[in-house]
Design brief:
There is one protein chain. It contains 22 helices and 2 strands. With 468 residues, the protein is mainly alpha-helical. The chain has a single domain, classed as Up-down Bundle (Amino acid/polyamine transporter I), CATH 1.20.1740.10. The chain has a two-stranded antiparallel sheet with strand order 1-2. The longest helix has 35 residues, at 139-173. The chain is globular and about 55 Å long.
Length: 468
């Protein structure tokens, strides 16, 4: 069942959806790179001066919440696992999935914003379930997606993350898993009972802090090991295409393994195609669907193109890939080779913060699934149950949770992909309309600038009066 729901058929369909939007939108993520970077970075810089309307969150808070759900243990442990199983070539295919995923998540956000609803408390609710019902007119698929989302929030979004936190703190700081579970339960209960506003206030502070801290540490390693960077990049490209290196070679089977590991880990980290992070973006006070889509492009860029890439380069430049270690131990060995025992502490703290951020993001996703299924009646009980689930997550052996999580990812992806293909003309129309409007605004601004007086000493007010 796992091979069907989260094997090549589903992964291929996700890539095909990304390729479809990439071509139909004229390589939007590449051609309009300056536009989406300006939109996202400009919003990040100015977010402190903006206050969300009652019941909603700002666009930066929505991005932080979406990143909280996607930036997780996959950025550290998942990348290390992909390198171990698929070799350096897996990173290239992770880049490919991220590039196509930028177009996919852009489309998800455009549709989510277009079909979101406004409740009596002033809150916006959106996601794949809403554009499945209101756009595709298939409530059955919307119910499947919502049910899978609610279940996945307890598995991949909660118990798997809390287990990673407990194991990390136990091995690094000798903190008992039971104590970790109790603290996590209390903290989650306090934050989630405050709704999306409290979750967003936490994530907008936590996500930038942990992202900047981790990237700074990676940058330090790469600077120290800068002489090995060209070789690391070369090994990624050679193994990606099966080019036989100077010593040894790569078989067709290894090439397929590299592709599958890279694509699956890329999708797992940035969640493009699953339809999950769009729920956070739809809670923002933004009004323009295409602009919110650009925030989604930036999310995938930061999550996979930047954070996953630097993790991979740290492992490759430090030469620990040949040690036979896997997962968190491989990442810890890479940082330890440069920082000593402080490197292990750094990885442990990063895994803890990343996993906790994922807990917060997925608490909101699961809540949205329950809200859609039960019409808002089961939200409060869900928040309590979600917090309590962290306790068994810390204490139990969860080897099968990841397999179940992969299957639930498939149940999330398949209905969402159906909507993405069926509603693609609407996304193209919305995007073209926005670009025309944006171009007209730039033209008017340029014309207005040309009409200004050439003498800079002439007061603009006097010039306008004279002209009138």
């Amino acid at each position: 069942m796992k091979e069907i729901l989260w094997g090549w058929p589903t992964l291929g369909a996700i890539l095909l959806a990304g390729a479809n939007y990439t071509f139909r939108l004229g390589f939007f993520q590449l051609r309009h790179c300056a536009l989406w970077l300006k939109t996202a970075l400009g919003g990040i810089v100015s977010h402190k001066s903006k206050t969300a309307k009652t019941g909603s969150i700002t666009q930066f808070q929505a991005l932080s919440t979406a990143l909280a759900g996607s930036i997780g243990t996959g950025n550290i442990v998942g990348v290390a696992t992909a390198l171990t199983l698929g070799g350096p070539g897996a990173i290239f295919w992770m880049w490919i999935s991220a590039f196509l995923g930028m177009a996919t998540i852009f489309a998800e956000n455009v549709l989510g914003m277009k079909y979101r609803i406004h409740d009596s408390h002033g809150q916006w609710h959106g996601g794949a379930m809403y554009y499945l019902e209101r756009g595709v007119h298939c409530r059955a698929l919307a119910l499947v997606f919502s049910g899978a989302c609610a279940l996945a929030s307890f598995g991949m979004g909660n118990m798997a993350q809390s287990n990673s936190i407990a194991q990390t703190l136990d091995s690094s700081f000798r903190i008992p898993p039971a104590a970790t579970g109790a603290v996590l339960c209390a903290v989650l209960l306090f934050i989630t009972l405050g709704g999306i506003q409290r979750i967003a206030r936490v994530t907008e502070k936590l996500v930038p802090l942990m992202a900047v801290g981790y990237l700074t540490a990676c940058a330090a390693v790469l600077f120290i090991r800068r002489d090995f960077l060209p070789g690391a990049v070369q090994s990624i490209m050679q193994n990606a295409f099966g080019i036989r290196p100077a010593v040894g070679g790569i078989s067709g089977g290894m090439l397929l393994t590299a592709m599958q590991c890279g694509v699956s880990r890329g999708i797992f980290t940035n969640e493009a195609g699953l339809g999950s992070s769009v729920m956070a973006h739809c809670g923002s006070d933004g009004k323009e669907p295409v602009e919110q889509g650009m925030w989604g492009i930036f999310q995938v860029f930061l999550d996979t193109m930047v954070m996953c890439s630097v993790t991979a380069l740290v492992i490759l430049t430090t030469g620990v890939l040949s040690t036979g270690l896997d997962g968190a131990r491989l990442s810890a060995a890479a940082f330890r080779s440069v920082f000593g025992e402080a490197g292990s502490v750094l990885v442990s703290l990063s895994i803890t913060l990343f996993a906790f951020a994922t807990l917060l993001g997925w608490s909101y996703y699961g809540e949205q699934g329950v809200r859609y299924l039960l019409g808002g009646r089961g939200v409060a009980p869900f928040r309590v149950l979600f917090a309590l689930a962290a306790v068994p997550g810390c204490l139990l052996d969860l080897r099968s949770v990841w397999d179940i999580s992969d299957m639930l990812n498939g149940l999330l992806a398949l209905p969402n992909l159906a909507a993405l293909f069926l509603l693609s003309p609407e996304v193209v129309e919305e995007t073209e309309s926005y670009l025309r409007s944006h171009s007209n605004r730039l033209s008017k601004k340029s014309l207005s600038h040309k009409e200004r007086p050439k003498n800079p000493r002439t007061p603009l007010l006097f010039y306008r009066r004279k002209k009138s």
